[in-house]
Task: structure prediction
Amino acid sequence: MKVRATKVGFYGGFRRRVGEEFVLSNAKQFSAKWMEKATGPAPVKAEKAKEPETFSEMNLLNDSQIKKVREGK
Result:
């Protein structure tokens, strides 16, 4: 049975986070407290902004943040 976590829970030796879909090995293991049956496509996660990878990118990010603070934005 394919399910989706509605709250943080623990199953199969792993912590399952909200929105994570996984398969139960036995329907008796279903817990309505933190699971729901998955019937459609998984929810789309918003992409995070790209993190700086080099010191140059970090400095550019810091400079732009300092500039915004000085301008009062």
User: Anything to note?
Assistant: Strands lie at 2-5, 9-11, 14-16, 21-23, 35-37.
